[in-house]
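Hi V.,

Quick status before I head out on leave. The structure for the redesign project is tokenized and pasted below; the design run finished overnight.
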């Protein structure tokens, strides 16, 4: 999840609204929400945002608040996935006002989760902590499987501990792991796939804790497990984040050829997602590795990629994907 970190950063799935069968006037908006939700699930955030914008316009033209609020929430979540913090803030501010005015308290937990995620990205850790603690109070003392929303809150709380209160990181990790074990025992095996992305995030946390404890071998093992879980979930942000973290660890160990491998795979995924921030960061690392490997031609080609990214044109991703199809020269 940037992931920014991920998008770290695991969020609840985008939703379609309203859940009841809509009258004909709302069918167009509902279709746009459904198409956007499908695109979001495919990690095609640019397309998802376009459809959610159309849905919001249709709902707004009808002053249909029950549709407007989920559309704004989906747009905020998509903006977070695209690292557009100002846009996310704008949509969440609108939602907060609408929820209070229209008394839509059932959507407040998702608003709090997204606000907490945004606060972490903004490094407003006290605000994030307060919002997450409010969410986690709802399940305090429970000994059954939490909802996916509350699992996301626990994931964010663990992330916050690593970033802000490292002395609490191990404790929060254990709580997150215990909740996942409850879910694995409670949910039928065919539903375990929905937990795979959370399990991947847990293993990345374990790798981070292992590195803090100078246990490099355990970190490698945890990252490998994370990759397996994310593959099962088909969760591209998690795959890209894991490969990037693994590449950084390999670079620290001066294992340049393996770091080269992980970065190429990460960039392939980020190009598919049109992840400008992640691609830029990975390219900088990849160029560093290529220089150490004395692959001068590859460095020149990757620097051209950097220049394309800076242009920010509409067809930049098409150009980059076409360039990626050509084998990077190694000499």
């Amino acid at each position: 999840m940037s992931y920014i970190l991920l998008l770290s950063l695991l969020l609840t799935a985008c939703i379609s609204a309203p859940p009841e069968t809509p009258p004909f006037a709302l069918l167009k908006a509902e279709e746009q929400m459904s198409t956007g939700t499908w695109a979001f699930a495919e990690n095609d955030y640019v397309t998802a945002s376009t459809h959610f914008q159309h849905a919001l316009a249709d709902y707004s033209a009808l002053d249909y608040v029950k549709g407007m609020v989920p559309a704004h929430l989906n747009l905020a979540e998509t903006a977070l996935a695209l690292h557009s913090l100002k846009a996310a803030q704008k949509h969440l501010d609108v939602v907060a006002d609408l929820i209070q005015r229209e008394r839509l308290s059932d959507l407040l937990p998702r608003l709090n989760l997204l606000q907490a995620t945004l606060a972490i990205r903004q490094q407003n850790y006290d605000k994030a902590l307060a919002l997450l603690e409010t969410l986690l109070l709802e399940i305090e003392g429970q000994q059954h499987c939490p909802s996916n929303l509350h699992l996301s809150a626990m994931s964010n709380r663990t992330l916050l501990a690593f970033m802000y209160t490292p002395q609490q990181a191990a404790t929060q990790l254990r709580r997150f792991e215990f909740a996942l074990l409850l879910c694995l025992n409670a949910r039928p095996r065919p539903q375990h796939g929905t937990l795979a992305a959370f399990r991947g995030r847990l293993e990345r946390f374990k790798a981070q804790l292992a590195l803090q404890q100078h246990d490099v071998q355990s970190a490698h093992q945890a990252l490998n497990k994370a990759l397996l879980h994310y593959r099962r979930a088909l969760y591209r942000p998690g795959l890209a984040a894991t490969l990037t973290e693994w590449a950084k660890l390999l670079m620290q160990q001066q294992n340049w050829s393996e770091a080269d491998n992980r970065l190429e795979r990460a960039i392939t995924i980020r190009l598919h997602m049109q992840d400008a921030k992640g691609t830029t960061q990975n390219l900088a690392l990849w160029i560093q590795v290529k220089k150490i490997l004395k692959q001068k031609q590859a460095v020149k080609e990757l620097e051209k990629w950097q220049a394309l990214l800076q242009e920010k044109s509409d067809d930049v991703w098409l150009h980059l994907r076409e360039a990626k199809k050509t084998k990077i020269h190694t000499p």
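Above is the designed sequence. The radius of gyration is 21 Å.

G. will cover questions while I'm gone.

Best,
W.
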